[in-house]
Each structure stands twice: as structure tokens, then as C-alpha cells.
Amino acid sequence: MLAHCAAVAVIPVFAMTLRNLVLVLGDQLSPSISSLAQADPARDRILMAEVAEEGRYVPHHPQKIVFVLSAMRHFAAELRALGFTVDYVELNDPGNTGSLLGELERARERLVPEGVVLTEPGEWRLFEQFSRQAARWPELVMLEDDRFFCSRARFARWASGRKQLRMEYFYREMRRDTGLLMNGGEPEGGEWNLDVQNRKALPKGTRIPAQPRFEPDTVTRAVMDLVASHFPDHYGRLDAFDYPVTREAAESLWRHFLQVGLPQFGDYQDAMADGQPFLFHARIAAAMNTGLLDPARVCEQVAEAYRRGAVALNSAEGFIRQILGWREYVRGIYWLMMPDYASRNAFGNQRELPEFYWDGNTRMNCMAQAIGQTLEHAYAHHIQRLMVTGNFALLAGIEPKQICDWYLAVYMDAYDWVELPNTLGMVMHADGGYLGSKPYCASGQYIKRMSDHCKSCHYKVSEHTGERACPFNALYWHFLIRHQDRLGGNHRMAMVYRNLERMDPARREAVWAWGENLLARLDRGERL
Ligand code: FAD
Ligand code: DLZ
Ligand code: SF4
Hints:
Blueprint (H helix, E strand, L loop, with lengths): L19 E4 L10 H4 L7 E5 L2 H5 L5 H20 L3 E5 L10 H12 L3 E5 L4 H13 L3 E4 L8 H8 L7 H12 L3 E2 L2 E2 L30 H13 L16 H22 L16 H6 L4 H13 L5 H25 L18 H4 L5 H13 L4 H15 L3 H11 L5 H12 L16 H7 L20 H12 L1 H4 L6 H9 L2 H19 L5
Parallel strand pairs: 1-2, 1-4, 2-3, 4-5
Antiparallel strand pairs: 6-7
Bound molecules: flavin-adenine dinucleotide, ligand DLZ and iron/sulfur cluster.
């Protein structure tokens, strides 16, 4: 626990009365979270509630709902074993109001506690609801979520006075603050960021480690039935669920990664391959975002693996950068910029999200692979999200809210605080360049370089126009041409705009026209 808790209101204790009712949310499953750290099993009572609204505010993948509800049920058992009384409201319970605030209100009326305590929700949507409630209930206290390296106040101080924020400089501060991979005041190995050593394509025949499977226990199976009956219309396969739902099982997933994934994580972090959903990735984001794994311990263990020579620096640094750097950076931006951030749309995009995002039915093999595994596992790794499904949405000019809601719905690890800045800022550049200095736009050539997807694709990655041309190509040039006013002066885009200027005018015309054709087909609801 690295950040400081906000002051806890001192609530007097009277004999025979309940002191605090402590509400624990579905992504707060950490025994040492601020709301529980100050709770006393003898005087306080825990409330946990399964509610329809949290499953429906976007149509969450059924595996995400199963994961959260089953992990909540196991966590309630963990708290009871620690001596706490837990009032646990199941989705099917008669009288369930369907919302977290409704359940809190119901329990407050029933138990008449002196205080109501919760750790602040991670999403603005709920934070705002509870903040409004706190204005009506003086006994409601929200504590800071201290499961992050950087508190909201610390981030705001760092950001203050900077016109543009850059992850790289924030990350360096975090390395200095924590001492992770530091050698005195200098970064281990002399370089802060080994990103250039994280971009190898996968050589043919590389052995990919098998992923551990976590068979659903009786609790999880009951939750699977519940989710099937309550959310039958949600996108994604339910029966393939095999994710850990307890702290011990999450720990075993993590240990597996440390031993067999991490050594090659550095080299192949950006690689993609047909039929390989996980490659050398850790799959821990869902467990970490709900509190089953602690980011500080995870990073310390990676640094320790480097110190004892078990992994190379490009793996250790590449991995720690994602958590200490990106994860903290996007959260900082989220809290600094909300609620306005969510409605940013710098390019003025209005296009509907194509239907194939929901069923994977497209002839673009890279898209079909990324979306197909998302349906199957509620998972895609970072480069698939950024450079395949994200890149397509950017090039096609999809309305930011629609693509953000899609990411929020389909991934098991998705929460607004981490999904929104990644999608709206990093992928869609809809914040006008606040989070990242340039859009990550790319033609089919990037996907060809980093994967084997193009080999078995209906489309030809070498072609730019015509029925069999890779749609990413014409859409890439169309994107650059239509946003030249905004992006042409960006020095990080200078090379691509020089290439555009050198393009033969007839070819430029043809590529633009083919891009128009593709966009018109999307507007007619056609599948590419
Ligand atoms: P690994 O590749 O093994 O990486 C290790 C850890 O680093 C992850 O578990 C994650 O905690 C962290 N991490 C890596 N990249 C990022 C990043 N850009 N931002 C924040 N943390 C990062 N991550 C989420 O946790 N929830 C989301 O809702 C989410 N939405 C995303 C949406 C888009 C459009 C993009 C481009 C990225 C998104 N990410 C999100 C970041 C990243 O894709 C996932 O964290 C990662 O794919 C999870 O798989 P993993 O645990 O195997 O990660
Ligand atoms: C994601 C989720 C789901 C699907 N269901 C519940 C629930 O029934 N009860 C609950 O307390 N939390 C749930 N969650 C997690 C919340 O959505 C999460 O706490 C907020 O989004 C704040 O980050
Ligand atoms: Fe994707 Fe284009 Fe390659 Fe097909 S050819 S896999 S659409 S990049």
C-alpha cells in the first residue's frame, strides 16, 4: 500500500449499535483495501451486493460477469474466515433493488449503522453517484483507494503546469519513487525504456507455453447458471470460462507467468499469431484490477527475477513499464480529466461501430482473430487492442463513445478508469493528443510485420486498391489525408506526411477513392 489514506471520520462507539456498514465493491477484493484496513469484525459489518445494473451499464461479456460475481462470493468467504459478518446480496435475492446505491440504502435502513464507509469506486460513474449520496448522508465516508503506486493528488501535482503529459517522464518519476530497477539514481542498465527491444516478430516454430486452466468450482458453476439466465443476450461465450476466481488461484496464474512467460515477454510483447490468443502475456489484468493480485508485489517480484538473473532486462523493464508506467499513467489522466474526458472527440468522428465487432464475422483475418478470441476468452493482448481492432476504429472514424463502450463491454479486465484513456486517448487520439503525442495509425504493413495473419487472409496486404486489397492500407492513407490539417504539423508525423507528399497524384487519388468506397460500405452496414 503505497499511497496515503484520506482521513477517516472518527465515529463514536455506542454499546449494542453497529458502528460502520462497510460496502465492498466487486473490484475491491483486497483484504487490506482502505475500507477494510480500518474495519473491526466485532463492531462493523460488511455489505457486498450482486446487482443487475453493474452487469448491464454496458453489455459485459458473460465471462467478465461470472469472474466478478464468483470472485466476490469467494472473497465474502475469505472475509467471514477472518471473523467479519458479511451481508451478501445475491443477484436472485428477492428484494434486490438492482443497484449498488439501492442495496446500500436498503441495508442502511435495516441496520441503522452509525457510519457508512467505502473505498472510493474506481469508475467516475459510481464515484459521482456516491459523492452525491454523501452530500445527503453525513455519515457516508469515502476513503482513497490506496492500491496504486501514485495517488490522485500525487499525479495532479506531477501534471500541474505541463501543457502535454508524456508517459515516459511520469514513468521515470515512478521508477525513482519506488526504486524499481534502479541502480542508485540511475536506471538499471543505463536506459530508462527498452521499448525498441520489445518488438520482435515471432519466429516460425516458436514454442508457446500452454496456459493454466482453472476449472470452475461449484460456486463458479452456480454463478455461470445465474449469468446465463440473467444476461442471455450478452456478447461472448460463457462456457469457455477458465479464469482464476480466488487469490490463491490468481497467485498460481502469476507464478506460472513468472516462470514460463516472463523470460520471453520482452522479445515478443508486440507479436501476434494465428490461433494464439495469449503468447507470452501474463493474463493478470483482470485479477489485478479486482484486487486478487497486488501490483506492487507483482513488480517487485519481476525486479527480483531480474536481479537473480532469471530474466533479461528487456523483459523485466518491458513488464514493469506496463504496470508502473502505463497503468498508473492512464489512471492519473482519468481522474485528472473526468468527467469531460469521456465526451472528447477531436476528429469529430460519427461513424457507427461495424456489426462485425460483435460477432467477428469479417474477411480481415487479423480482425477475425482478435475479435474471435475476445468472444472466446474475453481477452486480447495489448497490440491486438491497439494496432488491430483499435487501429481499424481509428482509421474508419468510428464514434469514440461507441468503440469505448465496446472495449468496456468485451474484456474481462475492463474498467472505465483504465479502458477509457487507453481507447479514447491512446487509440482514437480523441483527446487531441493529451495522453499521447501522436495517433498509433498504421497500414497493413505493420500487421504483416508483427504477425502471420496476412498469410491466410482473404485480402492482400501488398495491395492498396481493389476488391482484394487490404482495407487497412487505403483507410490508412485516407485517415492521413482527411486529418492533414490537424496532424500535418505534428513533428512525430513528419515522415509519414513526407511519404504522402511524395505519392504520385494519380495513386493518391485512387487510394482516396478506394478509402471512400470502403467507408461508404461500412456506412451501408456491409462487412469487409
Ligand atoms: P500483459 O501484456 O501481460 O501486461 C502486464 C500488465 O501490464 C497488464 O496486466 C496490465 O495491468 C498492464 N498494462 C499493460 N498495458 C497497459 C496499458 N496500456 N494500460 C494499463 N495497463 C496496462 N487494460 C486493462 O487492465 N483494462 C482495460 O480495460 C484495458 N483496455 C484497453 C483498451 C485498449 C484500446 C488498449 C489499447 C489497451 C487496454 N488495456 C486495458 C491495456 C492492455 O491491453 C491490457 O492491460 C492487457 O492486454 C491485459 O493483458 P495481460 O494481463 O496479459 O497484460
Ligand atoms: C463489473 C461488476 C459487475 C459485473 N457486477 C458487480 C456487482 O454485481 N456488484 C459489485 O459490487 N460490483 C460489480 N462489478 C464491479 C463494479 O462495476 C465496479 O466496482 C465499478 O465499476 C467501480 O470500478
Ligand atoms: Fe489484416 Fe490486411 Fe493482413 Fe488481412 S491483409 S490480415 S486485413 S492486415
